[in-house]
Amino acid sequence: MPAPVDAPEHLPQPSVAEMDLPTVMDALSDPIRLAILHRYLVDAAGGVRSCGWVGIDRPKSTLTHHFRVLREAGLLEQHQEGLTRSSRVRFDEVQQRFPGLLDLVFAWEVPAALMRADLREGLREDRSEDVTA
């Protein structure tokens, strides 16, 4: 039975068994993709967010490419609903296949230059609190 017309479309992604380390490491070798994954891990709390939410200061076409690379590596799951594309980290699947990898991404410090100006202030405040604590 076909999915209802208003159901979100699942975009293709590898199964857990199809995820391979070279592809995942290649996806994470770019600081923009690393920053996207980090933002989802830190601020999305495992939830689904629209791709525009990520706050990386790059053109939409560039971000679309980076989201696709992350999805094709198996790190993100994406759904298309109308004009909105939403993503979430495949946390359990990635942890099962590559234990500890997402912990390293979570601990990484995103360079402020990658973030939109309105989000940079929050990064500065968070970092100054860490220094004074």
UniProtKB/TrEMBL annotation:
GO terms for molecular function: DNA binding; DNA-binding transcription factor activity. SMART domains: HTH_ARSR (SM00418). InterPro entries: ArsR-like_HTH, HTH_ArsR_DNA-bd_dom, WH-like_DNA-bd_sf, WH_DNA-bd_sf. Residues 23-103 form the HTH arsR-type domain. Keywords: DNA-binding. CDD domains: HTH_ARSR. Gene3D superfamilies: Winged helix-like DNA-binding domain superfamily/Winged helix DNA-binding domain. This is DNA-binding transcriptional ArsR family regulator. It comes from Curtobacterium pusillum. The lineage of its organism: Bacteria, Bacillati, Actinomycetota, Actinomycetes, Micrococcales.
